[in-house]
Amino acid sequence: MEGSTASKRPHRLTREALQDGFVHEMITRAGIDLPVMSDDERRASLKATLAAQPVSGDVWLFAYGSLIWNPAFHYVERKPVLIRGWHREFCLSTPIGRGTPENPGLVLGLDRGGSCRGVAFRVARAEAEAELELVWRREMVTGSYVPRWVKLHGPDVPFGTSGIAFTINRNARNYVRPTSEAETARVIATACGALGSCRDYLFDTIHGLEGFGIRDHHLNRIAHRVAEHQG
Known about the structure:
Elements: H1 15-19, H2 22-30, H3 39-51, E1 59-63, H4 66-69, E2 77-94, E3 105-123, H5 125-139, E4 145-151, E5 162-168, H6 181-190, E6 192-193, E7 196-197, H7 198-210, H8 217-230
Parallel strand pairs: 1-5
Antiparallel strand pairs: 1-3, 2-3, 4-5, 6-7
Helix pairs in contact: 3-5, 6-8, 7-8
């Protein structure tokens, strides 16, 4: 979900940009053949997700990629956690933002199977709808993700706590099944768009995870190949 030419200065996804509908505008302006959710569809998705909260109270949001190092929403606290049944993968092709139509990039999604360590953000229930509206404006634009409640596991979160995770929609037009770490690295090493390069996205995610004591060996192997490709 990210925007146009690599020659311009990268645009940062700030809170203000999200409030102004920057992501939606960027995608519709690009004229890419991707379905774009209407404001009503997006709001309905958020309301349905919040209504399905397993236990009432503050809302936890699971971050596994750029939300870790650039959340752009207000939160009470954040904790490293583990989820099961999903793994972090470069499985979403992006022809804008971190790539172009001529040279699409790749960004992360949660695909089925395995487990994933990431960061859980706790959002005050009174502010949840307003704050998560910004997240929905960022993640739920083209229908590439499916928001769902997943169990969060960690010593610093109460047992049985659930959080919202953006899992990949395998029916999305830009979902891609990963081939090899070498091919993934080749794409990441060469793709760049209005939000910056895929390379920066990868390394920012690795550094964000490391800030919470999390090492993702899959991402680190890809990063090593990216460095070799550009060296």
